[in-house]
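Subject: design request, 345 residues
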């Protein structure tokens, strides 16, 4: 930190995650990589106590609710999801954007919808849409041998129909018995219960913290599952190897990362029309997409994919093209322009 004493004002980028070890901290590492690739001096820190005014980027929009405005730093942040009508904290985030619009120099969003919403507050010049990309060096297409191996390692029957859900959908960081309904775990359970009748060998693969509500629900409807708990990010690609389908049932998202991850890994995807899925999914071409909370359609689309291997192959082929178009490597030029906006402000 002492190096900042001798740095010129606004010559360095400091990146602040939420220190949870979860999604936004991964975003911080990705941003550091983009900075390195663009010859920007950057460092990940836990809190922005610096000696001279610099550029500070926060990877969580909830940082807007913290006391970050007394410094002379140029503020930048990721704002992926959450509209004021969806809850008090989101409303307060929007109010903070309005009240501190002069100090906030740039905002990165991941969806066209959020780009439009924030541009109304900050102006178009301050808002940049860059999707949450996928690292193709980590998320490589799986093979049939990968599938057999992972199922053996996870102790999942080879003839099972395996559906994946890798997220945090419980409140807090403990058992997670109280669901985060924004993530749609209740919808997921209803879809799985519907699928059970046609696919008696159904098996659910879970990862992520706070999955208590999900596990209790699967036990109630008598569907077997494997819960891997918290999985370090670099090991997540191996989880996709075991799947026949990835299912997203969220009501609101900024990503989710699983959209491009499943496409990169060659796993057919069914998702609600949330987050960047709306921008990236070509329904029936690279994935299947249903309206939010449409349990019947989610069930129908999942059944169609699981019953039609040729359709699954087509979705996988086109999905991989989408993953390539939105890989981290493909986004370097977008971040170059973003950094110019920050350093030339």
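Subject: RE: design request

Done. Sequence follows.
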């Amino acid at each position: 930190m002492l190096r900042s004493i001798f740095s010129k004002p606004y010559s360095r980028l400091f990146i602040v995650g939420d220190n949870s070890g979860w999604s936004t901290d991964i975003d911080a590492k990705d941003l550091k990589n983009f900075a390195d690739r663009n010859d920007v001096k950057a460092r990940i820190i836990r809190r922005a106590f610096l000696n001279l005014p610099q550029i500070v980027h926060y990877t969580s929009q909830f940082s807007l609710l913290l006391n970050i405005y007394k410094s002379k730093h140029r503020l930048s942040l990721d704002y992926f999801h959450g509209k004021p009508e969806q809850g008090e904290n989101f409303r307060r985030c929007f109010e903070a954007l309005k009240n501190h619009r002069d100090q906030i120099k740039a905002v990165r969003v991941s969806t066209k919808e959020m780009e439009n919403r924030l541009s109304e507050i900050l102006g178009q010049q301050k808002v940049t849409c860059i999707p949450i990309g996928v690292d193709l060096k980590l998320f490589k297409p799986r093979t049939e041998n990968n599938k057999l191996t992972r199922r053996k390692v996870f102790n999942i029957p080879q003839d099972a129909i395996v559906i994946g859900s890798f997220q945090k959908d419980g409140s807090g960081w403990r058992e997670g018995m109280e669901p985060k309904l924004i993530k749609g775990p209740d919808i997921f359970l209803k879809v799985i219960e519907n699928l059970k009748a046609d696919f008696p060998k159904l098996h659910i693969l879970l990862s992520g913290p706070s999955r208590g509500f999900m596990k209790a629900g699967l036990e109630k409807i008598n569907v077997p599952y494997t819960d891997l708990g918290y999985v370090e990010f670099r090991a997540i690609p191996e989880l996709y190897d075991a799947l026949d389908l990835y299912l997203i049932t969220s009501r609101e998202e900024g990503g989710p990362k699983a959209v491009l991850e499943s496409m990169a890994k060659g796993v057919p995807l069914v998702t609600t029309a949330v987050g960047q899925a709306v921008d990236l999914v070509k329904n029936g071409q690279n994935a299947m997409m249903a309206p939010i909370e449409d349990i019947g359609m989610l069930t129908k689309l999942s059944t169609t994919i699981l019953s039609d291997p040729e359709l699954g192959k087509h979705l996988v082929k086109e999905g991989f093209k989408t993953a390539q178009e939105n890989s981290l490597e493909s986004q370097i030029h977008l971040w170059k322009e973003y950094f110019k906006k920050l350093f030339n402000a």
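The chain has two domains: 2-131+330-343, 144-325.
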